[in-house]
Amino acid sequence: MSDLYPACDPLNLADVLTPAEQAAIRRLRATLETKVQPLLSEYWARDEFPTQIIPELVGLGMMNPAEVVEAGEKPGHLFAGFRTFELARCDTSMATFYTAVAGLFRTTINLGGSPEQAAKWDPLVQTFEMFGVFCLTEPEHGSDIARGLATTATRTGDTWTINGAKRWIGGAGMATTLAIFARDTADGEVKVFLVPQDAPGVTLTKMEGKISLRIMQNFDIALTGVQVSDDTRLANVNSFADVARLLGNTRSIVAWIACGAMAGAYEAAVRYTTERDQFGKKVAHFQLVQEKLSTMLANLTASLAMTVRLAQQEAAGAYADENSAMTKMFTSKKLRETVALAREVAGGNGILLENDVARFFADAEAVYSYEGTHEINSLVVGRSITGKGAFV
Ligand SMILES: Cc1cc2nc3c(=O)[nH]c(=O)nc-3n(C[C@H](O)[C@H](O)[C@H](O)COP(=O)(O)OP(=O)(O)OC[C@H]3O[C@@H](n4cnc5c(N)ncnc54)[C@H](O)[C@@H]3O)c2cc1C
After folding, report:
1. pTM for this one?
2. Which of 100, 176, 185, 269 is deepest in the core (most CB within 10 A)?
């Protein structure tokens, strides 16, 4: 087992991190264990985000950590990946919250913006002064957003007027900025605009009744005659193909979330089964329980190996949509199986928030469906295998 993850990384996959990166991850872990973990069950039950921990998390500077800078290094794909893994190992909502800004929004700015726009906004994103969220999905268009996206943007001089609706937008209530994807009424192409969350014509409504990721809040957004200037439009997003390029990147991030949540659920399951006595023995003693723990660890290890290799390839500039889709598809399916086994080995207590596995179990459902459902990601892979698109 590796030094960084002695309980859940038998193949030492975290050894791909430099000593400075590992030190930064340990610093993140210390804050998660002391400041965040104690709040999770209560806030999950309350269906609320513990906003008091945002300054703590932001203050860690995890997008450009001091240890890595002082070592003369630049945090890369693998560091960002294990940062996400560590957050998700603590809690799936925490990882989803942090990566909404550090992953989805930051990727949108850096890949979708011109070099000048990226240089202007990225430092603000790193400190969360610009707290941006990714607003693609709509009430009537989820999987078919590429062809269905109905929010419109109409240009008059240097001003764009946006009308439409977005759904499921994670963290929008805490955001300063909404990256709104809208179809240009002039050329029919999808473009993206940075809209202030409090702009006239923007209305947010919290989605109620979720049984998954209850800590991370999602919002419906109505956009009625919202006006923004042309310099808020990201210059390098001029079609849905450009949006797909962003999604190719962000799907890899979800694979890290799936791996981290598997680690959290697995470790909670080991903890529980080595503490609980039945028939005069710890339940971890029983063969059937050990088979489940073994399956969980194998699922995690295979998923993490795949995700680490994907990140290494991406770091080398070799992006392939089908590979990020395949990794998201595989890891989130293994997550679903793993959290179910974790819940199972905790018996009835596995459905109580206090034993942690219940939270991972419920939250896995969101990971399974967001950033492209299992089916849609499998169709991206299938198109690559066969050369035939089978979406309709
Ligand atoms: C917790 C959570 C957070 C989210 N956060 C964000 C966010 O921050 N920003 C954002 O823009 N979006 C967000 N989303 C939206 C998410 O990306 C969509 O839920 C997802 O793309 C699926 O769309 P849908 O839910 O409308 O399902 P639908 O598209 O309605 O699909 C329903 C079912 O039909 C299947 N299906 C659809 N088309 C096909 C097909 N051609 N072939 C086979 N099966 C098909 C799907 O796989 C699925 O099983 C979030 C979603 C969740 C649940």
Report:
1. 0.97
2. 269
